[in-house]
């Protein structure tokens, strides 16, 4: 194949993917599909009925640090076989700068992705729904689970919002995302 043909095929593939509405096949409303539904069903089979335990990190620093998704991308993933899931899983190795944020109060902005809107389960994504981690092939470092301080707020898909809360890193629990924002409070659009 000629070099120009390869370039044209690459440009056509990029144009198709970037101009397509991939999210039309994604069903976040069904408690997530594929990867997430497998995790949720395994949790049920294992007898988990309550929420996962919250980190035991002691919080002393009250300053709010503005964090960007670019900062959170400083992570390396190791692929390891998981016997329970019967599939390879990605385990993160966070950089020192990210580990320094663990347990700190942060402020971050992103796009809302409802995983289970009725249950109040939302994920904050660095990308819109059509190119999020669950549908569009972005990396797992581009999403953060929101554990709201109180109530079950309601948001629309792709609302661009800001939240403040305590960042909790997850390096080992395959039933949670790698980034979790505990005591999350909506601070604006």
Briefly characterize the structure:
This protein is of the alpha+beta class.
Molecular structure report:
The protein has 189 residues and is of the alpha+beta class. Helix content is 19%, strand content 33%. It is built from four helices and eight strands. The protein has helices spanning 3-19, 35-45, 69-72, 96-99, and strands at 64-66, 75-82, 87-94, 105-116, 121-125, 143-148, 160-169, 179-188. The protein has a five-stranded mixed barrel with strand order 4-5-6-8-7. A hairpin with a 4-residue loop joins β4 (105-116) and β5 (121-125).
- Count of runs of 4 or more consecutive helical residues: 4
The string of secondary-structure elements, in order, is HHEHEEHEEEEE
Helix amount: 10-25%
- Regions with little confidence, pLDDT below 50 for 5+ residues: 21-33
Overall mean pLDDT score? 79
Distance between the termini: 49 Å
Strand order of the largest sheet: 4-5-6-8-7
């Amino acid at each position: 194949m000629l070099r120009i043909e390869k370039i044209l095929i690459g440009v056509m593939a990029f144009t198709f993917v970037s101009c397509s509405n991939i999210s039309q096949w994604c069903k976040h409303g069904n408690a997530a599909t594929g990867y997430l539904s497998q995790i949720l069903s395994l949790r049920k089979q294992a007898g988990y009925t309550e929420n996962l335990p919250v980190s035991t990190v002691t919080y002393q620093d009250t300053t709010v640090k503005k964090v960007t998704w670019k900062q959170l991308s400083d992570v390396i993933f190791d692929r390891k076989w998981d016997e329970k899931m019967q599939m390879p899983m990605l385990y993160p190795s966070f950089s020192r700068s990210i580990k320094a944020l663990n347990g700190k109060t942060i402020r971050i902005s992103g796009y809302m992705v409802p995983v289970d809107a009725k249950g109040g389960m939302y994920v904050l994504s660095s990308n819109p729904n059509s190119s999020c981690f669950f549908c569009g092939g972005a990396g797992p470092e581009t999403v953060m689970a929101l554990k709201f301080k109180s109530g079950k707020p309601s948001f629309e898909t792709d609302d661009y919002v800001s939240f403040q809360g305590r960042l909790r890193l997850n390096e080992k629990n395959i039933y949670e995302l790698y980034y979790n924002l505990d005591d999350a409070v909506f601070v604006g659009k």
